[in-house]
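Whether sequence alone determines local backbone shape is best considered at the level of individual chains. For completeness, the protein is quoted in full, as a sequence line and a line of structure tokens:
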Amino acid sequence: METVFMWNDNLSTGLPDVDEQHQTIVRLFNELHWAFFLQEGERDGIQADVYGRLLAYTEFHFQEEEEKMLRFGLDVRHYQAHAQAHAQFMTQLRALWTQRATMKDPDATLAGFLSAWLGLHILGFDHAMARQIHAIQEGQTPQQAFEQVGQNPDQSMHELLGMMGSMYSALSAHNVQLAAENQALQERLVVGAHELAAAQLRVKNLARTDVLLGIANRSYFHERLEQACALGLRGERPVGVLLIDLDHFKSYNDTYGQLQGDECLRAVTAAVQACLHRSTDLLARYGGEELAVLLPDTNQEGTQEVAQHMLHAVQALQLPHENSSVGPFVTVSVGACAHVPYPMAQVGGGATALMTCAEEALYRAKMQGRNRWSA
């Protein structure tokens, strides 16, 4: 298999520890390149392992070089530029690695980047560092060493490195910009997906909600009732249902007007809702002035107790209703029913039978004088 980067003596700095570390980095470069040609099942894991080792070792190498420059007292101008090049490389490498899945040819992009950077960095910064260290060891001051290295005896090589360095800087900056733009695009897509999901949820909730009262509508109530009955049948647990009707509500609207009638409905709904304390309980608008309550896992005694609380909660509102035959205030009649659901094929089974039972109980409450509950 082709080796992406070949080590040769021209790359040697004359600093044994630095050269040894460079050769280790070259081996890791080539190992990463070869990992792109593995079979798909093992490729990702090995690539991630090699990349992790390359990143860790490169950070170690950079730290060693920077400590060496400080130890020999290199001119601050070289040290700052050299250390900045190290930091830029780590940023660029991380950005390219993060975006490799979106690249048309990630191996070629990464191999080209790593090879160009290593060659230019060694021939440029690292050779300059080595020459300054040798000059300082021979007695020159760091400033003299820096200025002498600046007058490279091989002017053509100096100019070539300068041109290649400019090209590399432009390309690497472009790659990082593309990676950043792609990352931003991915983030926008994620945000867009979340916003779309949230919008779909809002639409779904609107389809389940009564606009006037802000509670579940009849359709959603039946959906939840079917679910509760299925669970109750499976676990042999009772399901409770309440049907609540505002007494003489037509005469209330005739007396006080439609707008006041809407406010009355909202007030009664709030009072009834306050009697429900479980997240599984559900209050819904079942008709014009009729509410329905679903009480999963609730027996007849518990259902009747909730009905009694709701009756008292509405009475406590003391909303005036001068044309009610029941009394001076708004009242409600409640039909309560609870039992363990049975299959629809059996008598008294299913959600339909439960609702029929509650409707009959509500009818009895009205026949008995209203402002009461019946079971």
Q: What stands out?
A: Confidence is low (pLDDT under 50) at residues 151-170.
